[in-house]
Amino acid sequence: MSISYLTSAAMIAVGHDLLTNPSKLSILERDTLTTAYIEPLREVQKELVVLTTDDGEVKARLKDVSEELAGQDQIHDRLARGIYRGLECAADLAATPEEAEPYVRVRELLFPQALAINTLGYMEQGGNVLAVQSRATPAVREVLRSVCVGTHTMEEAFDAWVANGEAMSALVAERASLSGDDDDTRVSAGDLHQARLRWMRVVKALVAALDMLAIDEDERRRLLATLHEAEIRATKAREIEVAGREKAREEGGLEPEVGGDVEEPV
Predict the structure, then answer these.
(1) Is a pLDDT exceeding 90 seen at residue 207?
(2) Which of 79, 144, 179, 231 lies in disulfide reach of 161, CB 3.0 to 4.6 Å?
(3) Which residues pair with 198 in a beta bridge?
(4) Handedness of CA 142, 106, 160, 26 (dihedral sign)
């Protein structure tokens, strides 16, 4: 894996995660060795946002994020309806009010606004699901587990709903990090390339600093999880590009145009 394979949009997302996630930022702020890299990362992060916005890469990613959000929104609404109506059905089919009470109580606990939550914006929907997650006590989960529709229990549907909320929140955060002020000044590919190199140097130095500190391995893993995931994705994309060029060369055709940013060793 190589950090140089990351697209500029991925770099921005990784930097945004390190600089805005409270738990991750608190780890970086514990020691002066890592604190020293926070401001340099913030500065090159801002520069990358401006340059890549003008370059057009961020706009393309914003389009993708918007499409992903629309898809996640449909999943959110479908799961919300299913859980709400599943609990409602269980209550309606109960023989007595006492038997129906647990289903009504859990439904109102998880859906205080009923299905009006499906009319909220992406950010509010994701935040609402994450807030509701804390209300799923063992007793609540037992009620959810007791209701089965088809091959799925309401507990399984609820966990899928929570995962959907996390995905929506992450996409909303990425969309916010990618959205920047329009710059009317045209920038060169060299400007973007140099900004990418500076970002890579800062992040590599930060990772090296972490290796010098006595940080819990699990904390380190969570701190760098977004970076490592981005590296894996970028490496796979790079392998596909290289395979495509080799295949074109073997067939005697023209090499396909390779997208993404120029790779440069640091």
Answers:
(1) yes
(2) 79
(3) none
(4) negative
